[in-house]
Amino acid sequence: MAILPAQLSRVSNQLRANTSLNQIMRTQADLMRVQNELNTGRRLNAPSDDPGDAAVAMQLRKTLEKRDGYSTNLNHAKNYLSSVDTTLGDTSDLLLQAQQIASANVGDSVTQAERENAAVIIKNIYSQMITLGNKSLSGSYLFAGGKLDKAPFEEFAGGVKFVGSTDTLQNQFDETTAGAFQVNGAEVWGALSTRVESDHDVSPDLRPTTRIADLGGAADEGVQLGVIRLNDGTTEGDVDLNGADTVQDIIDRINNAAIGNITAAINPTGDGISVSAGAGDSVTVNDVGGGATAATLGIKSPVSPGVGAPVNGLSINARITPLTDLTALNDGAGVDTAGLIITNGTKTATIDLSGASTVEDVLNAINGSGTGVRAEINSDGSGLRILNPTQGNEMRIAENGGTTAQDLGLRSFGPPTKLADLNTGQGVRYVDGADFRVTDSTGVGFDVDITINTQSVQDVIDSINTASTAAGAGVTASFAATGNGIVLTDASAGAGTMTVIASNFSQSAADLGLDKPVTGGVMTGKDVHQVEAKGVFANLAKLQNAMLTGDQKSITAAAVALQEDYDRVVRIRGQVGAQVQDVEQRQERQQDETLTTKKLLSELEETDFTEAITRFSLLQTSLQASLQTTGSTLNMSLIDFLR
């Protein structure tokens, strides 16, 4: 702010007029800005008002906009998790009620009519559980994972199938933190606990086309590509393996490096890389500069294995991928493609693999079978697994006349199966002495004694064949080539019919599935190692069935299983409660930070009325003084200079 100087007498009238006008206009502009500040309550109405403060204010506004988004995410997460918490509370209450009903219906004082009435209540609890599992909030299903728009549980083939996702969605809570606002619905209800996993390592052999990304490495922690140093005793050189895509790339780079007589190939066992040289050479392989390439490739050898001896690398654990050729599985032994028979509840399908050439073909055939099961590669890439997402159904995986299920390690019941695992874990009940007697069609019989040393189904088959041979009977025991079960074949061609009769009140024959009719001299036993369905819905269904049949042992077993379900739900609910608390604490911190930011923004943008009014008054005085001075100056004439 300035007042027009009075000493303008020695300049032209035009210059005096322009100077005065400019001064008045600047003062008026300043006065207008202050008036605008007072009218709007804002100090910064345009970036030009204060470029420095305007830039800071713009950054603060961006921060507030982001926090508004984070606040929305936190509110959504809190509402979502609170609904989950309430639902889990209702679920645990129903599980507790089911256990109490089970406990109340065990004992001789309870009539069968009372148990049947209790079964009706359990059925109602079952229905309520489905409703809770499919509960939604604002159109989004709480336990569906990424499939928010579809109910995660649906009735299928006599059970309840989980069709949701096991992924839990996340939201950004602040600049550096993303947090989950869901729980795994499959875990809550135990939906994917029923499964069959490969019972042996089905990993492929190492092939030139095997990709480096598909290797577990010598320590099963992957392969780190870098530079290795090779020495044949007289010549040394480095080989850069960075960017190699396949095993053949590594072999080619070593061979093309032409370091003495050193060459590389797949080792004799077909699971690693071999580095060799001439008959008189001593080969060593080392890493360079602290790298781990040679070590993870299993060929690191600081000390030569001997003159003329190759460095035969360790297994580098080729993993199964969807594109793995079936002929490569089982260390190159391959897989029979006769197919599988999968039964899941009321659904049965024969899986034709005659046209399959890769693991992906197998997975697609199983997943598209209509049985409701889900096949996938296991977590470490060493085999396959078949999940049954339908609770209340029992799953069986059998052969289709070949060895496919056995080759993949997926046969649910076979000669290696332990007797203790049969009949949903109840095992085989045997007595001291003979357990059952087998008689062929000519009347020649023999006793079979199941003892503590009879550990597997194969042991039972061997015991039957040994006893039959000793007695001169024509009965041979084997295991079904199609389907699952022990097969007794009578080749004696007598006039009678082969029989299997329990001895000493033993239940071994029935527990082994050998209580089927004989057709054409052959008895094909039952599959007594179905994959037991687990989870909330399965256990409630078992409890209901046990109530209806009056099976007190099964009632107790179902109650024990429901206790495990209850403990799991309570544990998950506790985790959800902790998540809700974390979200609330984040909301409080964010509110404090937002208030601080808004205060800073207010100090930058909003008008300080005391200061603005003072400036306004001073500018008015300045303008008035400038106008008076200008008026006096411009009124001067030649007469004023002659005085």
Describe the structure.
The mean pLDDT is 87. The two termini are 33 Å apart. The chain is built from 15 helices and 26 strands. The protein has a 4-stranded antiparallel β-sheet with strand order 15-14-19-23. The chain has a 3-stranded antiparallel β-sheet with strand order 3-4-18. Strands 7-17-16 form a 3-stranded antiparallel β-sheet. The chain folds into 5 domains: 1-41 and 609-643; 63-193 and 537-591, f41 fragment of flagellin, N-terminal domain (Up-down Bundle), CATH 1.20.1330; 212-312, no CATH class; 326-412, no CATH class; 427-524, no CATH class. It is 40% helix and 15% strand. The longest helix has 54 residues, at 51-104. The protein is of the alpha+beta class and 643 residues long.
Structural class: alpha+beta
Low-confidence stretches: none
Mean pLDDT, to the nearest integer, reads 87
Task: Count up the domains.
Answer: 5
Q: Give the percentage of residues in beta strands.
A: 15-25%
- Going by CATH, what is the homologous superfamily of the largest domain? f41 fragment of flagellin, N-terminal domain
Largest sheet: 4 strands, antiparallel
Q: How many helical stretches?
A: 15
Helix content bin: 40-55%
CATH topology of the largest domain: f41 fragment of flagellin, N-terminal domain
State the CATH class of the largest domain: Mainly Alpha
Would you report the number of β strands?
Answer: 26
CATH architecture of the largest domain: Up-down Bundle
Strand order of the largest sheet: 15-14-19-23
Q: Tell me the distance between the termini.
A: 33 Å
Rg, nearest Å: 42 Å
Shape type: flat
